[in-house]
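Dear colleagues,

As part of the handover before I leave the project, I'm documenting each prediction I ran so the next person doesn't have to rerun anything. This entry is a single chain, and its sequence is reproduced below.
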Amino acid sequence: MTTLDAQPARASTIATQHATRAIFLIAGIGMAAWAPLVPYAKDRAHLSDGALGTLLLFLGLGSLVAMPLTGMLVGRFGCKRVMALGSVFILVSLPLLATLSTPFALGATLMVFGASIGLVDVAMNIQAVEVEKASGKAMMSGFHGFFSVGGIAGAGAVSMGLALGLSPLLAVGVVALTIVVLWLFSQRHLLNERLHQDDAPLFVMPRGWVLFLGVLCFILFLTEGAVLDWGALFLAQTRELPHSQAGLGYALFSVAMTVGRLTGDRIVNYFGRFLTLFCGTLCASLGILLAVFVPSTLAALAGFLLVGFGSSNAVPIMFSAAGNQKTMPVNLAISSMTTIGYAGILAGPALIGFISQWYSLATTFSAIAVLLLAVAASARRITR
């Protein structure tokens, strides 16, 4: 059976690298386009805050259901077909999320939307691993940087459209058209070879090295989820920042992460994966400790900036490590690792809330800093 590893010349072409960047851009745009629509969906469906929170769980549930299956689908049908399927469902879901007005319909659509994001997310990372391996140089950070750029562009485009008086449907229509254009640009150069062999399992539970990488990804995604969901509250409560300005911490974190990933390939190629991962996660840990223990608003904001820049290249390095391991087939390994890591964003913030209720938010953030030190301590093993 033909595998992606048997196509190094095709995978290393400049056109294939650009096509991979376009897919990461599509995923970022599609995922972020939903965020500005949330208040409109809440009003249309007459939802309370609690009901909205419950409804949003369906998005994560859809992703967690789809991610473990994506490795098998890529093995049978190839990256291109799986990414095409996910992109089509993103295009179908966004207009529905902009217009539906019943909780049941919104919940069902959010689950499909989450599954679509999960399909594209895992398949594009499998493609990115193969493209990076064929190129012989670090490229993963740059790919993830385009996902971050897509997130900024998707949320920004919809928000701008709404601010200019467009209806939610027309605002997401602009985004959908952008996704179609990017897909038409990239689809000719995406990898489509099957990975599955007749005697290979369709799905295996993560084990050994892959499970270890998944746990480290959980910590990294937990860090991102903590800043996203609890960063503003931390700044408001402990640094008495006005609520209108409390989101500045996450904004600085996001900008730093985007810049870090767009420059990450050069950093990795110059310093190597070990130093990049070790120093990066150490920087992120120190950033959290700076925000927690120095009683200054500027220090806290600088801390969030350090967390974003320090952790920016850690997850891409984990995907590269998953692509180079021999414990499991690459497609199944990335699928499993992504699922475990993504649980950090979904379950992590709830866990933080539970611990903070018994201790304090500052204590919980300190615990995350310690976990990041554990990732730094593992850097040599991960990158050897």
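Confidence is low (pLDDT under 50) at residues 1-6. Residues 103-135 form the longest helix (33 residues).

All the best with the project,
I.
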